[in-house]
Amino acid sequence: MRFQRCKILFGEEDFQKLQLAKVLILGVGGVGSYALDCLYRSGVHHITIVDYDVYDETNQNRQIGSDAVGAFKTERLKELYPGIEAIHQKMDMAWVASFDFEPYDLIIDAADTTKVKIEIAKKCYKKLIMSLGSAKRFETSKIEVASIWKTHGDALARKIRNELKKAKFDRNFTVVFSPEEDKCKEKGSCVAVTGAFGLTICSEAIKKIIQKK
Prior knowledge:
Elements: H1 4-10, H2 12-20, E1 22-26, H3 32-41, E2 46-51, H4 73-80, E3 85-88, H5 93-98, E4 106-109, H6 114-124, E5 128-131, E6 144-147, H7 155-166, E7 174-177, H8 191-211
Parallel strand pairs: 1-2, 1-4, 2-3, 4-5, 5-7
Antiparallel strand pairs: 6-7
Helix pairs in contact: 1-2, 3-8, 6-7
């Protein structure tokens, strides 16, 4: 049976929680595509992805589905992961303001735009897991999970913290980050880290789903 080993690990009751959970993944690039793969293989049945980009050759070092250069990420991943829902949509401030996040049990933010990430946090903090900077790094042992307010050594985390403070927002939400020093100036990337970010997010998502009463 496809999920037999998952059921052995989690037990019937908790595995049922995974099957019933509704998860929204914002961005399915180097981090989000691995979170999708992990959740899908772990028995999460109701997964919705949101993305707008097409694959290009530079994605091929780190993104699942990127063999299909020129294809929309949402369409390619629907082929690879039958049964998921896909929303082909550019995530901007207007979309965050108008989109209904209520039906989802968990929101995974693997989007690229800082302003959008901040608005998502304000709107969805109670059920949010956010990915911070995974580029310019190659040491997976440095990856950490913490509250946004406990992050350190990550420029994106610092910017988000500062903007949230300016907005007088002080609520907690979970982030995956790495304090590893940048190894390059441009956006170099390694799937060892981007993929591990996605898998770590998946692990945190599973824990939150199982712990929910």
